[in-house]
Amino acid sequence: MSCEEPTTSPTPENNITVVSSDGKEFLLDLKLTEQSETLARLISNFEYDRTDVKKDPVPLGNITSAQMQKIIEWLQHHRYYPKWEQNDIHYSTSFTFETWVEEYLNIPNNEMFELLNAANYLNIPRLFSTICRIMASRITGKSAEQIRTVLNIKTDVKNDVYTGIPIQEDSSSSEDGMSEISLSPSPPPI
Amino acid sequence: MMVGDSPFPLLRLPSLPFRRVARYMDIYDRFTLSLVSKRTKYLVKWINQKNMEMNIEINVKEKISVGIHVPHYHQLCCSIKGYPENTKLEVSKWGSGKWFTCDKPGYRLEDFLNHVLEIYHRSYVDYFFIDILSPDMHVFQKTIKSCSSLSVSNEVTDDDYIWNILKTFKPTRALSLGRGIEHQIVPETQRRHLEDTPLYDVSRNDFIDGGWDVRRKDGTVATCTFDDDAYFQLALSYVSNRTKSLVISIDLKCTEVMIQIEEAIIVRIDFPSYDNLICTFEDCPENGESKVHRLRDTREGFTFHKPEYRLEDSLSHIFEIYHQPNIVTVSIGRLLPDMEGFRRCIKSFSGLYISRDLTDIETWNILKTFKPEKRLCLDHIPFGNDKGMSFKGLECTIHVDGGYDIRRKDGTVAT
Q1: Minimal CA separation from B121 to chain A, in Å
Q2: Which of A49, A109, B20, B46 could form a disulfide with B8 if both were Cys (CB 3.0 to 4.6 A apart)?
Q3: Is the overall model pTM greater than 0.80, yes or no?
Q4: Which CATH number fits domain A3-80+87-140: 3.40.50.720, 3.20.20.20, 3.30.70.2470, 3.30.710.10?
Q5: pLDDT digit string (tens) for B118-144?
Q6: Nearest-CA distance from B4 to chain A in Å?
């Protein structure tokens, strides 16, 4: 059993083990799990914060080891940050991120997509909101045609084969439908 | 986004992240996203903009535009261009300079209207203004079930067309037809009753605070408020008995009414606002038709003709809607066939002026008929003498050498 250790070495009393979808184990400080509402609720329900309770590894079937690694990096950085307040759930014309966050999220789109799904699954509001805000900012101010380009939506109009008249169609060849990940016990409130 | 990166699969996001991303967009970006594809339209609609506090208004002027206003936030304007052949939508964000033109082949005007209403879960609009004749009212009939406030420009004068508009939009709260009449539901605290003294609302100079409460079939009460314009009010009072009593109920005041009987009969009405109206009866008494215009502007006017109305009826009408004004002066240059009838419609007058062109007998008859009690001016100068005198409450300016003895009912004699 391999074990990835965060920067600060957790003691057996104040940590839990999580297992990613590819079977990799990560030892997490209980302090870090407070940022994930999914994990925090699980720890509370199974009383893993008590030293006399046997702590079984927690399987995270939707999170790969690479995603978990990235998430632990986020949790470590925000270890001593105040609790996230859900007061910025609407559009704002001015927002900035610290340099560390910009570098942290300077990743390919597919990784960003997976990270957002992982943040949603683990219910980490600060990470979830940050990625959502960045994605919204990429669309801001664009025309419909530009958004089509950014999101690679081909077209939603094609000619009727019989009449040649344009007909509306739900196209987006690259879009296969909404992925259904709904394992979060309690999604972040919107 | 990194160079050479694949596009972010926004539409593959689970519902929660997608909704949050959409919430971080402003109304302009969200609306733009809804135009990208049918799918994005449903996704944007899905993020529950139903309870969003907003106003949607449609203006049909030279072009058709749809304004979406979110209080203390942003304003989005969608202008329909190229209607009806090549309909395009120009979307702009108020004050930002951002705009783009969206050309969705196959989209007609009703499709664009439906699009807007659909993503905001609406079947009605808050305000609809129509200025010109719409090419096809059926377009709106298909899309808009009702509107809160309907305003029809005074450019629209065709009765059938106005009736069609009313049937189509079914205004629920406010209706404004052309210049002058406004019908709206006012809060209970602001509602006024007929016996109240009208107040002039500084913030709404154009309308009198007060009006006519109308109880609808559904139990709600609406109040008709009135344009603070004497010209309009007088015109409205002539429309029907109901509108006449409606105008009477708002307790209008005029400062003075002057009636001049010359070739034509001219009634001048002065108002506290220094506005004046002139009613002219040209062929009286044969024809009771009156022409009404402003003193300062003779171009604007209307002709009122009611076959059964005689001069006396028209005068009574005026005195009635202005609640028997205190100052009425009559200047007589010729006799009317029925001076007694004319006198009866004036309950009290403050001054009588008699022209020099009348004979002594005619003047005497007038004095007998009118019995002036306040002010009398006899503009009769047979001897070139000009002398003024005042006695026993009757101020006389008599331009004759001598005078007429007037025996009052109480036995006193005035000269």
Answers
A1: 19
A2: A109
A3: no
A4: 3.30.710.10
A5: 888 888 888 888 876 566 777 787 888
A6: 9
